[in-house]
Amino acid sequence: QVQLVQSGGGLVQAGDSLTLSCEDSGRTFSNYAMSWFRRAPGKEREWIAGIDWSGGSTFYARSVKGRFTISRDNAKNTIYLQMNSLKPEDTAVYYCNRGGPAGYWGQGTQVTVSS
User: Fold this and answer.
1) pLDDT value, residue 1
2) Which of 42, 71, 74, 85 has the fewest CB atoms found within 10 Å of its own CB?
3) Is 54 helix (H, G, I), strand (E, B) or coil?
4) What is the per-residue pLDDT for 58?
């Protein structure tokens, strides 16, 4: 059974930085692309970043491009989301994902950005 365990998050001020982590318990982590999603209060879940199996290709939603960086360490079965220049509108519950909407999800991590 694959489990994605997230860490990081919290309350920060606008302009601050924060890093989220997501560790995959599966043995085939390095075979899979991974993603980060978020759900802001009263809004639909939003895909924000993706990374291929090797880490060689990354993809971002327009809302975070240039501020967020997704990366992975296959030796640690972990992906990261480095978030810089945080804005109040980045306030959301953040989720890591493997395999798309029908795949595996982390437990979610609250990120709150105060103005």
Assistant:
1) 82
2) 42
3) coil
4) 98
11, 17, 29, 73 from 40: Cα distances, Å:
14, 18, 28, 27
| Residue linked to tokens 């879940």 | 45
Which residues does the chain have with pLDDT short of 70? Answer: none
Q: Check residue 26 and give its pLDDT.
A: 85
Q: Going along the chain, which residue ranges are E strands?
A: 4-7, 10-13, 18-24, 34-39, 45-51, 58-60, 68-73, 78-83, 92-98, 104-105, 109-114
Provide the token pair at 7: 């860490």
What's CA 38's distance to the chain center, in Å? 8
57, 65 contact by CB (below 8 A): no
pLDDT at 14: 98
If one counts every other C-beta atom within 10 angstroms of the C-beta of residue 44, the result is: 6
Per-residue confidence (pLDDT) for residue 23, from 0 to 100: 97
Whole-angstrom distance, CA of residue 81 vs CA of residue 70: 5
